Amino acid sequence: MSRDGSGRRDHEAFDELAVGWALKALEPDDESRFARHLHECSRCNQTVREAQEMTAAMAMAVPMEQPSSALRARIMAAAAATPRDAEVAPPLQLPLRPPGRVISSGSRQVRPRHRPRPRLLVMARGVALAAALALVVGLGVWNVDLRNDRAEAQAFAARQAEVLDELNDRGIYHVAPLETSDGQAVGMVVVHDGAAKVMADGLPVNDAERETLVLWGMRSQLSPVALGTFDVVHSELDVRTVSSTSTVLDAYDGYAISLEPGRRAPSTPTDTIATGTVGS
Amino acid sequence: MALMTRAEDRSSSAGRHADVALVGRLTQGDTAALEQLYDRYGRPAYSLARRILADDGLAEDVVQEVFLALWRQPERFDADRGAFSSWLLTMTHHKAVDAVRREETLRRRRSRAADEDEALLGTAAAGPDVDDQVIRGIQGDGVRRALLELPDVQREALTLAYFGGYTQREVAALTGAPLGTVKTRMLAGMRRLKDALGGMATSEFAFGEGAGL
């Protein structure tokens, strides 16, 4: 508890996490746990704000040093070349990449139109992700070497048992691997039976109080369509369900993920962080 | 009455209102407002980033990233949630910590951390200009005194995490204390800081009774 003696000892652990959060010093597990808690705890929001006031005071106590005189000019030149997000939404162009796959678990076959991307086979996170997808769709036919990643995949499967059960039925899965603009694999979008889920594997953790991630549907020559919102609560492999009122989620050639201020999807994406295409 | 110095202006109520007005101008695409905000906070932001990164170039990159993020999305600052200075310096801190972890400058930081912590908390601040002295006079001295009055283990935990960019587990490893003890020390240290600094002009918050720290 806090020191007022009002019997809040049961909250002491969260008080500790709130300070660690403000210091950006939490371990991933604690960060995940606290992010979920912070979303609904006004006391911890207050604690974080107060701790950030203290850390800001500490920052102001650092002996002042002078940046190079060129920095100011560099920042202003960069700003002049950078449109404000509210002014001009960044163009959303789906980068060329191997298309994703439509997977039918009804026939229990995977029909990739292209060889699986090498990254999925050689990177541990990618392997785990591919294995996780195989588990999700109940196939088990992905020729993925799990010898080195079996424990990780099993741990993932255990954590997501509920989601696996939910997804593991028959039907068509629309899958779009997600990449950042510099080609980093960060998960995938899985649309099935009118619901969309994002398997996040490196997407940024958003501030669930002030920000939201938005899933956009992309079709050529059409403006992006906001399909729903979701939060990424920790940086580890995780499946997030997209909260959506859209009834048509699978009618798109690709998807994009954007990070947005506030808790609602804007009319156009402001900060696109990943895109992915779906095979036709 | 003496003219208000930049440091006094930043911490005053008028200064905070000026910050909010400048951010409001940013939302209209006013580049002059960005220049003014850089003139007010570029140096503290750089000083913090450099303290964490121990590298001039990386620190400038972080500051540029911070001010460009501010330029692109000024609406992310919510004046109802605290002072602009706290928001900007928190963003600076977090980006600098991201950078230091990304750049893996750990070994170099370790070699310098001891010396710089000593300088930060000691009296060896060399060659300050008048503006620096004002900062220390109003805020720095108070913070330094509050830090020095903390039990050593609490100060160590807070400064390693905040200025060193170490996670709680790393702090535990560095100090030889159990992780749970480190968490407790950080909370206790922060509570003491709040008691010592709660009335300072750096804070807009009321520090409500029984809530928070």
Could you describe the 3D structure shown?
The complex is a heterodimer of chains A (280) and B (213). Helices cover 31% and strands 21% of the residues of chain A. Chain A has helices at residues 12-22, 28-38, 42-60, 69-80, 118-122, 124-136, 150-159, 161-167, and strands spanning 101-104, 172-179, 185-192, 195-200, 211-218, 225-230, 238-241, 254-261, 272-277. Chain B has helices spanning 6-11, 13-26, 31-53, 56-72, 84-103, 106-121, 130-149, 152-162, 168-175, 179-197. In chain B, helix 8 packs across helix 10 and helix 9 (168-175) packs across helix 10 (179-197). The termini of chain B are far apart. At the A-B interface, helix 1, helix 3 and helix 4 of A face helix 3, helix 4, helix 5, helix 7 and helix 8 of B.
C-alpha termini separation of chain A: 56 Å
The percent of residues in helical segments of chain B reads: over 70%
How many beta-strand runs of chain A?
9
Number of helices of chain A: 8
**What is the alpha-carbon Rg of chain B in Å?**
18 Å
- Shape descriptor of chain A: globular
- Which stretches of chain A of 5+ consecutive residues score pLDDT under 50? 1-7, 89-127, 135-170
How much beta of chain A, percentage-wise? 15-25%
Integer average pLDDT of chain B: 78
Q: How much is the average pLDDT of chain A?
A: 70
Number of domains in the coordinates of chain B? 2
Total number of strands of chain B: 0
Give me the CATH fold name of the largest domain in chain B. Answer: Rna Polymerase Sigma Factor, Chain: A
Order of helices and strands of chain A: HHHHEHHHHEEEEEEEE
Helix fraction of chain A, binned, reads 25-40%
Helix/sheet category of chain B: mainly alpha
**What would CATH call the class of the largest domain in chain B?**
Mainly Alpha
